[in-house]
Specification:
Layout lengths: L1 H16 L3 H26 L8
Length: 54
């Protein structure tokens, strides 16, 4: 029973300290992921020979 109470008390404290991750994921999904996708697609479209990309 001791490990269950320790895990039950650890989970809320862990979730409270990771509450800042939500705004970070918003920027990652909203800005960084589309920018990386557009950059890859631009390089792919503009390449002369498609076999150059591995």
């Amino acid at each position: 029973m001791g490990t269950f109470t320790m895990a039950a008390s650890f989970l809320p404290s862990m979730l409270a300290t990771t509450s800042f991750l939500s705004p970070i994921f918003i920027y990652i999904i909203g800005w960084i992921l589309p920018a990386a996708t557009f950059a890859f697609l631009l390089l792919y479209i503009e390449s002369d020979d498609i076999s150059d990309i591995k």
